[in-house]
C-alpha cells in the first residue's frame, strides 16, 4: 500500500486511534472519546503516514469515539474491504441507498485508494451527535473530494444499539 498523503492533524488522529483501539481490547467499550492532541505522536522517518499501521477495522459498535470509527472505515476503504466499509453506513449499509453488490461494484472501481482526512467537527443537535469531516480519496492521479457526516443517537432511553453506534449518515464521496 502506498503511504497516504498527510493532512495536518492526521498523525495525531492515527496516534489517538491506535491508543483507543488498544483500550477497546481491554473491555472499555464505554470509554469517553480521546481528545485530539493528547500525547505527542512522532512521525515515521519518511514524514508520511499510512493507514496500514492501524489494525483491522474496528466494528463501529465498539467505539464511542468518532475519530476512531472514521479511521477504521478509512482502513477498510484502503484495504478495499467493501463489506466492512458498507457496514459503517446506517442500518448496517442499507442507508447508503445501495445493496452490498451495488456498493461493491461502485467502490470496487478504485484501484489503490488512499485517504486524506481533514479536521472533523463534532456537534450535537436534538438528542444526536454529528461528526462532519472532509475526506479526499486519492486513487492514483484521480482525486475524489467530499465530506462524510457521521451520526449517533446520544444515550437516550429506548435507543437501539444501531442508533447508538457511530454510522455514516451521509456522504458526498462518489467513487
Molecular structure report:
This protein is an alpha+beta fold. It has a single domain, classed as Nuclear Transport Factor 2, Chain: A (Roll), CATH 3.10.450. 26% of the residues lie in helices and 22% in strands. It is built from 5 helices and 5 strands. Strands 1, 2, 3, 4 and 5 form a 5-stranded antiparallel β-sheet that branches. Strand 3 and strand 4 (142-153) form a beta hairpin. Mean pLDDT is 75; it is low at 1-55.
Radius of gyration: 15 Å
Estimated structural class:
alpha+beta
H/E element order: HHHHEEEEHE
Helix % is 25-40%
Tally of strands: 5
Distance between the termini: 19 Å
Uncertain segments are: 1-55
Beta-strand share of residues = 15-25%
The outline comes out as globular
CATH architecture type: Roll
| Major sheet size, sense and barrel closure | 5 strands, antiparallel
By CATH, the topology is: Nuclear Transport Factor 2, Chain: A
The CATH class turns out to be: Alpha Beta
Number of helices: 5
Total of domains: 1
Average pLDDT number: 75
Amino acid at each position: 500500500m502506498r503511504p497516504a498523503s498527510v493532512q495536518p492533524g492526521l498523525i495525531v488522529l492515527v496516534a489517538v486511534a491506535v491508543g483507543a483501539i488498544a483500550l477497546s481490547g481491554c473491555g472499555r467499550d464505554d470509554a469517553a472519546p480521546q481528545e485530539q492532541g493528547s500525547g505527542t505522536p512522532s512521525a515515521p522517518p519518511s514524514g508520511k503516514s499510512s493507514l496500514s499501521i492501524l489494525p483491522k477495522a474496528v466494528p463501529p459498535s465498539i467505539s464511542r469515539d468518532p475519530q476512531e470509527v472514521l479511521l477504521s472505515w478509512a482502513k477498510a476503504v484502503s484495504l478495499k474491504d467493501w463489506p466492512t466499509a458498507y457496514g459503517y453506513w446506517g442500518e448496517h449499509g442499507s442507508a447508503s441507498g445501495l445493496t452490498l453488490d451495488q456498493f461493491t461494484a461502485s467502490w470496487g472501481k478504485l484501484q489503490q485508494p488512499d485517504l486524506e482526512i481533514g479536521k472533523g467537527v463534532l456537534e450535537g443537535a436534538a438528542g444526536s451527535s454529528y461528526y462532519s469531516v472532509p475526506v479526499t480519496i486519492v486513487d492514483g492521479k484521480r482525486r475524489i473530494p467530499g465530506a462524510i457526516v457521521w451520526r449517533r443517537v446520544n444515550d437516550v432511553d429506548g435507543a437501539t444499539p444501531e442508533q447508538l453506534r457511530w454510522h455514516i449518515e451521509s456522504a458526498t464521496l462518489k467513487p
